[in-house]
Amino acid sequence: MKILVIEDEPAMLENMVSSLKQEQYMVESASTFDLALEKVSLYDYDCILLDITLPDGNGLELLEELKKQQKTDGVIIVSAKDSLDDKIAGLEMGADDYLPKPFHMAELHARVKSVLRRRKFEGNNLLQLQNLQIDLDKHEVQVAGQELTLNRKEYDILLYLATNKDRLVSKTALAEHVWGDYIDQADNYEFIYSQIKNLRKKLKDHCAEIEIQAIYGIGYKLVIV
């Protein structure tokens, strides 16, 4: 799952990013309105943690931009501005939740998981595809009740393809979602091919009733077999 943290306070930003990374999320950050606007315009996120008060703009304007671009990113407003008007405005503009500062990181994690379950998995924490099951909270995968051991990127790829089952996912979209904006520095997609190859072999060796189809020159699709 890919998360964007928009926060201008350095210490708070560092703590949030570090804590979310420990929960195995792909995390990107932005400390200014302009940088945040660039990121939400170029990339898609599963959840955005949005501070309202930024040094060069109002976070609520970013919500307006997401709406204009018809983005479906989940949004949690995380702000010290605990006024009822701001909360109502944010929720009416499409935010999923509002978390006032200060807060415990455990509560932040719970709010993020709740938004992801509602947005991506219809409120469930288990994703079932034939004989394959993904535990979203534990980041574990089982095939026919037997654990399937995956590395971090293999798990991220499988989860992203699973949430887009039967849809063609371009190599670019997959790379951006799993590797984040670091993908801009890559010369090619060889690192994706390697992870996909290993993941496909593991699924086949465990007799998973799903497979990852390669669409030459375009991307991948996860299908039931």
UniProtKB/TrEMBL annotation:
Molecular function in Gene Ontology: phosphorelay response regulator activity; transcription cis-regulatory region binding
In-chain residues carrying the UniProt-annotated modification 4-aspartylphosphate: D51
DNA-binding region: 124-224
OmpR/PhoB-type domain boundaries: 124-224
GO biological process: regulation of DNA-templated transcription
InterPro entries: CheY-like_superfamily (IPR011006), OmpR/PhoB-type_DNA-bd (IPR001867), Sig_transdc_resp-reg_receiver (IPR001789), WalR-like (IPR039420), WH-like_DNA-bd_sf (IPR036388)
One CC-aspect GO term: cytosol
SMART domains per UniProt: REC, Trans_reg_C
Keywords: DNA-binding, Phosphoprotein, Transcription, Transcription regulation, Two-component regulatory system
Pfam families: Response_reg, Trans_reg_C
PANTHER family noted in UniProt: REGULATOR OF RPOS
Protein name stated in the entry: DNA-binding response OmpR family regulator
Organism (species): Rufibacter quisquiliarum
